[in-house]
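Sharing in case it's useful to others searching the archive later.

Someone asked me privately for the predicted structure of Cation transporter, so I'm posting the question and my answer publicly. Question first, with the sequence:
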Amino acid sequence: MSDNCCADATGAGDALNDKRWRRILWIALILNAAMFFIEMGAGVQADSRALQADALDFFGDAANYAISLGVAGMALAWRSRAAMFKGITILLFGLFVMGSALWAFANGTAPVAETMGIVGTLALLVNVGVAFMLYRYRTGDANMRSVWLCSRNDAISNVAVIAAALGVAGTDSAWPDLGVAAIMAGLAITSGIQIIWQARDELKSGAEPSVSVGEA
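And my answer, the predicted structure tokens:
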């Protein structure tokens, strides 16, 4: 990365058309799609609700990155509509995870801690790398912000999955796994609401927000 920390206030459209921005989204899309298959398989094998929920999050993020690539460079209204759709899907994901945790509370068994720890660490490395690449694009319109929030929340969730693996290993109980699922649900619900609110405001005002793009 360059050591030059410059601000680009030329508008959201210029930032969204940045070749580097699009390249990062393609990398994030490929990594998230691959991690969905890896983590879902491991989550089923280990009977971990947290891993399965995180896998669904990877799938949702891959779809979100694809949508972001599709609307990059379009008018603000279209970007805001895409962000509204993403906000709604994130909110629904959070509600799904909460319901899954409640179901597992009544019917689940203790997951395999070793699998949780290994796969959770791999997922953390992927998400930290993606979040680091996207850090300079964390401001701007709702569409750009939603991409950053997804990556940030994923990294936080992965730390929680690793902590849950340690908790499961120490207690031989499903409680740590279910606790992480609840945390992930809370993060998704909160972020979804934030994105929906910002997208709604942008659709009402129709004004382009200023974008500050700095090096990570």
